[in-house]
Design a protein that fits this description.
Layout (H helix, E strand, L loop, with lengths): L3 H29 L4 H23 L4 H4 L2 H16 L6 H26 L4 H22 L13 H16 L4 H22 L10 H9 L4
């Protein structure tokens, strides 16, 4: 009942849900920038299908939204809905963060599963999960003129990587795919959610005073 075949049938639903959630986050950025409805659509599509597109190109498989245009249609519909409802939300940035966290977790699982399905090794499957989960948000921030979630030192890629690791580990242990997917999703979402709720950061590299002084004294002209 909960075997690989059932999970394969569930994956298209996960894909569409992830696309819609990420598209909503892209549309929310458009609302923060005061764009028109076409701007909403543009950012929604880029965010919704960006990570999965890069993943499929790397795996050398048909790009998922070219074989099933429903994903792009879902992005466009989401953009229109957000365009007419975003003004009702008091804190769009906070909502953006939570939509992004949900999309990150969903796409991480979907990307990791697709990597394993196409015969990649464990490490490559994890990388596919991270790419699928994080690239859409990075593209959204760059195109939308928002500070990149990666450059803000957020716990973001780390959450995706740990969710992907959880999924492949449970699959290797013989856990049923749906349970492994739920666990991977919960790990990624919980870690990212805690980072949002409590403003958690990973330690960052800092230059020592001697290196700072040396850098200031360098002449690059």
């Amino acid at each position: 009942m909960f075997g690989l075949e059932a999970f394969s049938q569930l994956m298209p639903v996960i894909d569409i849900l992830a696309v819609v959630v990420f598209a909503a986050s892209g549309a929310l950025v458009a609302s923060r920038k005061g764009l028109d409805v076409l701007g909403f659509m543009w950012l929604a599509v880029l965010t919704g299908v960006g990570g999965g597109t890069i993943r499929d190109l790397i795996l050398d498989v048909p790009v998922f939204w070219l074989t099933n245009p429903a994903h792009v249609a879902a992005c466009l519909l989401t953009a229109v809905i957000v365009h007419f409802t975003a003004s009702l939300v008091e804190s769009r940035f906070r909502l953006l963060l939570w939509f992004d966290a949900l999309g990150l977790a969903l796409f991480t699982v979907a990307g990791t599963a697709k990597g394993l399905d196409h015969g990649t090794g464990t490490l490559v499957a994890i990388v596919m999960g991270v790419i699928t989960g994080s690239v859409g948000g990075i593209v959204r921030d760059v195109v939308g003129g928002e500070p990149s979630v990666v450059l803000r030192h957020e716990i973001y890629v780390t959450a995706s990587a740990l969710g992907a690791c959880c999924y492949v580990l449970l699959m290797a242990l013989g856990v049923v795919p749906i349970a492994a997917a739920i666990a991977g999703f919960l790990v990624a979402f919980a870690i990212r959610g805690l980072a949002i709720a409590y403003n958690l950061r990973l330690p960052v590299w800092r230059r020592t005073p001697a290196r700072r002084a040396a850098g200031d004294n360098n002449n690059y002209t």
